[in-house]
Amino acid sequence: MPDAAPTTRAHAAAKRYIYAWGDGRAEGNGSMKDLLGGKGAGLAEMTNAGLPTPPGFTITTEACNDYFEAGKTLPAGLWEDVLAAVEDVEKQTGKGFGDPRNPLLVSVRSGAKFSMPGMMDTVLNLGLNEETLAGLVALTGNERFGWDAYRRFIQMFGRIVLGVHAERFDEPLEARKEAHGHGAGDTDLTVDDLKALVAEFKAVVREDAGRDFPTDPAEQLDLAIKAVFASWFGKRANDYRTSQKIAHDLGTAVNVVTMVFGNMGDDSGTGVAFTRDPNTGESVLYGEYLVNAQGEDVVAGIRTPAQISHLAQEMPAAYAEFQAIGRQLERHYKDVQDLEFTIERGKLYMLQTRSAKRTAAAAVKIAVDMVGEGLIDSREAVARIEPAQVDQLLRDQFDPVARKAAIRLARGLNASPGAAVGRAVFSADDAVEWVARGETVVLVRVETSPDDFHGMAVAQGILTARGGATSHAAVVARQIGKPCVAGCAELVVDYGSKSARSTISGSSFAEGDWISVDGSTGDVFLDALPTVSARFEDQPELQKVLAWADEIRRLQIWTNADKPEEAAQARGYGAQGIGLCRTEHMFREGERLEIVRGAILVANEATRAKLRRDNKAAADAKAALGVELSAEERTAAGVELSDDELAAIATFDAAMGKLEVLQQGDFEGILAAMSGLPVVIRLIDPPLHEFLPNLEEQLVKVTRAGDSATDEDKELLATIKSMHEQNPMLGLRGCRLGLMIPDFVKIQTRAILNAAVAVKRAGKDPRPEIMIPLVGHVNELIATRALLDAEAEAVVAAAGEAIDFKFGTMIEIPRACWVADEIARHAEFFSFGTNDLTQMTFGYSRDDAEGGFLLKYVEDRILPENPFQTLDDVIAAEMQMAVDKGRSARPKLKVGICGEHGGDPASIHKCEKIGLDYVSCSPFRVPVARLAAAQAAMAGDAFRDK
Ligand code: ADP
Ligand code: MG
Ligand code: MG
C-alpha cells in the first residue's frame, strides 16, 4: 500500500471531501469505511492491492452530512473538487466527460458504512446524451450497444434521480418486447426498438417529472450526487436503519466510477460471486454471470444467469484471473468476500468487494476452516459467529426447496426457533390423547397457560394467536426446546369447531389437518413440509467453535431444568450445573395434581390445627414439669382437637407424604444426572390457586349442577373463593407460602436431602443447593432457614452421615437488592430472578404487559427494548448493587442469574460486566450462551485494554 497520496491536487473545499483511485493507487483505503462507505473503502483497498478497478472517486459521508446541515446545498468548493476529480479520471482514461469523440461515462453509486438494502440504486451510463451517444456508437462500431446503454440510462436516471415510477418505463419496454412474440427478452430488441424506446422514455420523463431529460453531463452528475445524498433520508433507508439499530447520522458516500461495459458483445459480461459457498461454507467459487449484459441484469432476473464455474470454459483467462483475485482478497481481508465484476471485451474489472453474508452452517464451517488454513485464530473464529446462528443450527429446519415452494398460511412472531410438523389439535388434552394414539401434533391455542403444559410437552410445536415473544407459550416453548409461532394475530382460532382461519390469506384448517410451523421465521404453512434435522452430536465444527469459546469465557453456563432428561441433554450441550430446578412442575403432572389439590383443600385447616396441637403439647409438657402456665398457655392446654381437625391433619399429612416420596424420586433422578455438578432446587414458588381449577369454571360447574352439585364440588368452590387474590403475583407465593404452610418447606427439604443421601449411596456425587424464592426482607429468609435447618438436622441424624448442601436465595424483589448485604449473611448464594425483578421494578404485570402495551411501547420506542427479553440497564444496576453489597458481606458469595435473560446474548454481556459467576438458561440455549459468554469476555478484555 503506498503511503503517499497519488495526486497532489489542491482542494477547493475547506475539508477534503474527495478520495480518488486509479492507476494502481488510491487516496483512501479499506480501513476508512466511516468516511468512504463500504463500497468506496473496498474499491480503494482493491486498487491499492493492485487489482483492476475502473478509475473513479468517492465523495465522503462527511460531505453528505455537511450537505444536509447546510440545508441541502453542496458545501462550498465541493463541486469544483468534483469537476477536478472528473478531470483526473479523464486524464487516466483518455476520455472526456461530455466529449462526443471519446465520451467518458460513469456510474454513480451510493455506499454507506453498512450495506443497506433500503438505499439508493446505482445509476449507470451517466454522461450520455444524443452527441456522446453518437460518439460511443462510432467508437465501438456497435449501434445496438450504444442505444441499449442510452435507454438504460434514461430509465435508471428517470426512476432513481427524477422519481418517475418504474412501471411507467416497464410498460413501453414490455410492449416492445411483446411485439417480438410472447416471452421475448431484452436481447431481442432491435436498434429501431431501442431508438423508439428512448423517445418514449423521454416523453414519460417530460410528463411525470415535468422537465426535459437533462442533456448536460455535468448537470446529470450534480443531480445524481444530490439524489444519492437524499436517499439517505428516504423512507426505506430510515426504516431499515431503525430496524437494524444503525445510527441515522452516519451519512452515505457517493462513488463516481468509470463505466466499463459488460454489454459490448459475447466477449463481455457481468457477474457476482462469493469466494466460498455462502450456503454450505465449502471452499469453492460460488456465483453467477451473464454474457453481454450490464450489472443490474444479473440480479434483476431478466435472463437466467450461468453458474460462475461455466465461465472457465467461456472465458478461461478472465476466469483464472478472477479466481486468483478472489483468493487474494480472501487472504487480504481474512474473510469470505462477496464480489461484483464486469468483463469488457475480455478484460476483467473489479467493481465491489465486501464481507459475504452467510448461513449459520456456512459461518461455522468457514470459521473453522479459516483457523485450519491459518487465516484467523480461534478467538477471531469465536468472535465471528453470531449467537443466533448457533441457535439456528440446533433446530430442525424445513427443507429449503420445499419451503420455497410452499404457500404460507399465516405469519406470527418467531417465538422459539425450529421447524415443527404435525396435525392440528386445539387443546392440551387433545394433544395428549392424539399422541397416545401415535399421532404427531401441533398445539394450536388462542394463548397458552400453565394448564396447557402437558399438551405443549407432547406437541411438536406450538402456535398461538395472541401473546408476545415472552408470552407463556414462547417462554415455555423455548424452555422445552419446541418450535413456537406466537401472536399470530391474523389467525382466528375457534375452539368450538376446532378450526382456525387466517383473516389475511383466507386459508383455514381444522383438527387433524397437517400444518407446518417455522418458529425461526414465524411462518405457518398448510400440509406437512419435509424437514432436515440438526443434532448437536452431528456438528463437530460447531462443537469445535464452542470448545474454543469455553477457553475464552469467564462466566459459567448453567441450565434451567426440571427433569432428568432435560438435565442430561443440557449436560450434553455443555451445561456446568443446574441454576434452576422448579419443583412446581413436579406438582402438576398426572396423578400428582390430584394429590396436590387434596392437600391444598385442607392445608389451611390442617396447618392451624397442627399449630394448636403443638401449642397444646408444649403447654402440657410445661405443666408436667410443674411450671406455672400463662393465660394463653392455659388456653392452649385446654384445647382438644376436634374430629374434623384431626381428619384434616390426617388427610393433609397423607397427601404430603405421597408428594414427598414422589419428589424425592424426581430429585434423585436430577441429582444423579448432574452428578458432580451443582443443582439449585427452588422451593415451591407459585400461588396455590394455580393448582386448583379456575374460579369461574368451578362456579359455572356448581351453578349448572344446581341441587345435584356434589359436596366435593361445593367445597372446592369455597376453597377457591377463599384463596382468591386480586394480585396473585404480589400475593401469597414464594417464601410467603412456605412460612404460612411450613409443611411445604419441610417435605421439600426432606425430599431433597434424602434424595442426596440415596444418590450418594449409589456411588454418585450429588450437590444440591436449596433456594428460597421471593425474599424481600431478611427475616423471611431467617425464618425459612430455621424451618429448613430443623428438617436437615433430622435427615442427617436419620441417615447417620453428613450431607453437603448449600442454602441460598433468589434476588427478585427490588427491596432485596437494597438489603443484599443483610441477606448475604444468611445465604451462601444469590440467583437473580430477573423476570420478577423486571416485573416488580417496572411495575408491569408481565403476563398482561407482554401481549398488550409493551409491544406498542417497543414499537413506538418509548422503551428501547422489551425488558423481559433483554436486561434493562436499571435492572442491571440493581443487580450490580446487590452483587456489591452481597459480596461485601460474604466475599465468596456465589451469584448467578436464572431468569429468561440468562440465555439472551445481549443480557449475557451485561451479566459479564456485573461480575456474575454464572448464567443459567434453558437447555437449548446453553450452546448459544457458551458463545455469547466468550464474546462478552472478549468485549470486556477489549474494554480493559483501552
Ligand atoms: P449495489 O449496492 O446495489 O450492489 P452497485 O453500486 O454495486 O449497487 O451497482 C450495481 C451493479 O451495477 C454492479 O454490480 C455492477 O455490475 C454495475 N456497475 C456499477 N458501477 C459500474 C461501472 N462503473 N461499470 C460497470 N458496471 C457498473
Ligand atoms: Mg453492488
Ligand atoms: Mg420469580
3D structure, described in words:
There is one protein chain. This protein is an alpha/beta fold. Helices cover 49% and strands 16% of the residues. The chain contains 38 helices and 32 strands. The chain is elongated. The chain starts with 17 loop residues before the first strand and ends with a helix. Adenosine-5'-diphosphate is lined by residues 54, 107, 109, 122, 124, 257-260, 270, 295-296, 340, 342, 351-352. The site of one magnesium ion has 6 residues, from helix 33.
Draw up the topology in text.
Blueprint: E1 18-22, E2 25-26, H1 33-48, E3 56-59, H2 61-69, H3 78-93, E4 106-112, E5 123-126, H4 130-140, H5 143-160, H6 166-178, H7 191-209, H8 217-231, H9 235-244, E6 252-258, E7 269-274, E8 286-291, H10 296-300, E9 306-307, H11 311-314, H12 316-333, E10 337-344, E11 347-355, H13 360-372, H14 378-384, H15 387-393, E12 397-398, H16 400-405, E13 408-411, E14 413-416, E15 419-425, H17 428-436, E16 441-445, H18 453-458, E17 461-464, H19 472-480, E18 484-486, E19 491-494, E20 499-502, E21 508-510, E22 514-518, E23 523-526, E24 531-532, H20 540-552, E25 556-560, H21 564-572, E26 578-582, H22 584-588, H23 591-624, H24 631-638, H25 643-673, E27 678-682, H26 695-705, H27 711-723, H28 735-740, H29 742-761, E28 767-772, H30 778-799, E29 806-811, H31 814-818, H32 820-824, E30 829-832, H33 834-842, H34 846-849, H35 853-859, H36 873-889, E31 894-897, H37 905-914, E32 918-921, H38 926-945
The protein binds adenosine-5'-diphosphate and magnesium ion (2 copies).
Adenosine-5'-diphosphate (ADP) binds at residues 54, 107, 109, 122, 124, 257-260, 270, 295-296, 340, 342, 351-352.
